[in-house]
Hints:
By secondary structure, the protein is mainly β. It has a single domain (8-57), classed as CATH 2.40.50.100. Helix content is 9%, strand content 47%. It is built from 1 helix and 4 strands, in the order βββαβ. It has one helix at 40-45, and strands at residues 8-18, 22-29, 32-39, 53-57. The protein is globular and about 35 Å long.
Amino acid sequence: xxxxxxxxxxxxxxxxxxxxxxxxxxxxxxxxxxxxxxxxxxxxxxxxxxxxxxxxxxxxxxxxxxxx
Length: 68
C-alpha cells in the first residue's frame, strides 16, 4: 500500500481498549508510546491485536515541541 504521508513510525501494538464505538490503540515506538483513537469497526477489520507490528502514520497541521 502506498501513502503520501511521510511521518511513518513502525512500532508494536501494546494495548487495544475497545469501546462501544471507538477503540484506543497504544503503539510502542522505541521508548515512546503513541496513542490513537480509531473506530471500533476499523480496529476489528484490521485485526489490531497487542504484540502485532503496526505503522503509525502521523498527519497533522501542527507539531508542538518542548525542550528538556
